[in-house]
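Memo to structure team: turn this sequence into structure tokens by end of day. - J.P.
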Amino acid sequence: MKLKFIRPMYLLIAAMLLTFTLGGSPLTSVNAATTTQKASWLWDTTLIKKSGSTVLNFYKNQSVNVIYLQINRNINISYYKTFIRQAAAQGIEVHALDGNSTWALTSQRTQLTTLLKWIENYQASAAENEKFKGIHFDIEPYLLPDWNTNQKSIVSQWQSNVLYMVQRANDLKLPIAADLPFWLHTIKVPDGTSTLSSWMLKQYNSVTLMSYRDTSNGIFNAAKAILEEGAALNKKVFTGVETNNTSEGSTISFYEEGAAYMNQELDKLVLLTSGYASFGGIAVHDYLGWKALVER
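Reply from structure team:
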């Protein structure tokens, strides 16, 4: 839960320690379980094949230390090995990313099995500095057409698949995380015993909130309830921000305001969240949008 008070000096120290999240020097060693992170999604996996060095140089300049890299099984594993090895040399962890809204359904569990088997085979063939350091899922069942009319059943199936994924990740000895909407605390699990966000926090090693707003206060207010749940459960919560143009409204993304303004707001966000032991860092969505924002 939120600390009762914070001394001004603590705020100053916290800001200094977390400057790497705002463009300072990246950590030389990153432990995803215990260290504050600056993460980013990389959805276009073909980029590791044709411009991996460019991607890593950008992320290094932005002090990113965790990349969520989407798995594209059409890309030869040699490119993954090279990219992850080069990232590791710069102190950057790479986590295997994938997801689909239908993956919440038990009828689609074979899709999960196929992905997790690919990760298992890859890990077995990779050198230590070429291995993924975690698994990251993006499953958004509220995008399914029958979410509003069949929510209880979908949530129950989602829970079942999460338990399956977590067990498989444990077998692989990899931490597992997921993207979650910031409003998930407003939904109860089918038996009514807890919020769905609290239940998810108990299963995953950490969660990344899609707390997409274009002000520090907006991001903080969106994330606050689940930050409090994370603190009570001793789990890390990452606050996600958007850089792409979106049709969801002008308050969602930093696309209109630009990179300099975004960095200023993230600076403020670090101070706003410094009283929460659950705050794990910031995740920026996504590489292409962020790069365009910086270059613009």
